[in-house]
């Protein structure tokens, strides 16, 4: 399909219309029905074919190799018709999931079941000698670390004899419920009001095309969605939210921050866009294809730095829309109460959000 033939396509996800410029064979209106945008349950493949270089990773300090993109588009992307996909911002945080736990909507944290050190060594040795993970045999009962009893595997994890088995990276993706007193997930807990079963969500503003809003959203409205937790104490805080004294965290639904006028899926044009366009000050792009599949590219795939100065998300204006401390959030945790005192307040940039001392 030619990349220069465009038409306006309306995508409906959860009864919300999305309008974007996409390629099609003729200038007609097309309706693409997607069950849900942005469900990130598995590792997302790169939009390009990749190769491994034996040099220190730009993304992980202790990793002595890095995965980089070639200039060849991944056949998976072509099969999913990536030229007609919805381009959204790849956010730099930690992945979360909302589903039922103990009979009510609940926030879950990402917890992949990983191999023991000995099993990891065997797996990496096999990879080096065969230049592939194919043919490696796992003993799932013995080779993997224990996980909490409430842990569940992610959607589409393959099973053998009733047991989940690892993916090609040697991990079993999964989720664990965020419990109130678990210090490991204290920043997850900070965005929750358990009394009213709601979460603090950062999302595009309904009345400002360029703006964002922080809103208290019932977890029931987020059921079966995946979201990204971003903020002061997550992944080095590239969006400059809050401070050590006053940490600020929030959830962002995957697929909610779309990229207007994205570049075509072309290696050189994407490199130029990331380096030269104000809209390219993002960690990466995730394309949501009409068949429900996802593909991505991030700056490290293209040998580009991240973070690299101010971010596109951080430069957008934001308004706070969280109910007053005197009403439904009166019994909430500190972050909810702090935001409720700013209800209706507008900030010119995301990092400008500050609470009274």
TrEMBL record:
Its EC number is 6.5.1.3. GO terms for biological process: response to reactive oxygen species; RNA repair. It catalyses: ATP + (ribonucleotide)n-3'-hydroxyl + 5'-phospho-(ribonucleotide)m = (ribonucleotide)n+m + AMP + diphosphate. Keywords: ATP-binding, Ligase, Nucleotide-binding, RNA repair. It is an enzyme of class 6 (ligase). InterPro entries: RLIG1 (IPR041211). GO terms for molecular function: ATP binding; RNA ligase (ATP) activity. Its cofactor is Mn(2+); Mg(2+). Functions as an RNA ligase, in vitro. The ligation reaction entails three nucleotidyl transfer steps. In the first step, the RNA ligase reacts with ATP in the absence of nucleic acid to form a covalent ligase-AMP intermediate and release pyrophosphate. In step 2, the ligase-AMP binds to the nucleic acid and transfers the adenylate to the 5'-PO4 terminus to form an adenylylated intermediate. In step 3, the RNA ligase directs the attack of the 3'-OH on the 5'-phosphoanhydride linkage, resulting in a repaired 3'-5' phosphodiester and release of AMP. This is RNA ligase 1. It comes from Cottoperca gobio (Frogmouth).
């Amino acid at each position: 399909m030619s990349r220069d033939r465009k038409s306006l396509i309306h995508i409906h996800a959860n009864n919300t219309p999305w309008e974007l410029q996409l390629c099609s064979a003729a200038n007609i209106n097309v309706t693409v029905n997607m069950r849900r945008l942005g469900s990130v349950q598995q590792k997302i493949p790169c939009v390009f074919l990749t190769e491994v270089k034996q040099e220190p990773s730009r993304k992980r300090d202790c990793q002595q190799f890095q995965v980089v993109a070639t200039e060849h588009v991944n056949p998976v992307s072509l099969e999913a018709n990536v030229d007609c996909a919805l381009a959204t911002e790849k956010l730099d945080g930690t992945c979360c999931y909302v589903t039922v736990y103990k009979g009510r909507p609940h926030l879950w944290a990402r917890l992949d079941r990983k191999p023991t050190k000995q099993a990891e060594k065997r797996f990496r040795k096999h990879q080096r000698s065969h230049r592939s993970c194919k043919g490696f045999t796992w003993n799932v009962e013995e080779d993997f670390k224990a996980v909490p009893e409430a842990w569940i595997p992610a959607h589409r994890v393959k099973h053998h004899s009733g047991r989940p088995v690892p993916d090609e990276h040697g991990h079993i993706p999964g989720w664990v419920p965020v419990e109130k007193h678990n210090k490991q997930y204290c920043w997850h807990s900070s965005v929750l009001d358990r009394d009213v079963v709601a979460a603090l969500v950062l999302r595009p503003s309904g009345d400002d095309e360029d703006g964002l809003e922080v809103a208290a959203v019932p977890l029931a409205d987020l059921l079966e969605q995946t979201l990204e937790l971003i903020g002061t104490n997550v992944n080095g805080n590239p969006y400059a939210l809050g401070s050590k004294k006053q940490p600020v965290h929030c959830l962002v639904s995957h697929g909610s921050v779309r990229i207007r006028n994205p570049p075509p899926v072309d290696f050189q044009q994407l490199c130029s866009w990331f380096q030269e366009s104000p809209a390219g000050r993002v960690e990466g792009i995730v394309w949501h294809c009409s068949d429900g599949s996802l593909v991505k590219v991030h700056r490290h795939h293209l040998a580009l730095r991240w973070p690299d100065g101010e971010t596109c998300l951080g430069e957008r204006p934001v308004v706070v829309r969280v109910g007053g401390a005197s009403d439904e959030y009166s019994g909430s945790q500190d972050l909810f109460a702090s935001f409720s005192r700013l209800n209706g307040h507008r900030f010119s940039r995301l990092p400008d959000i500050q609470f009274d001392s």
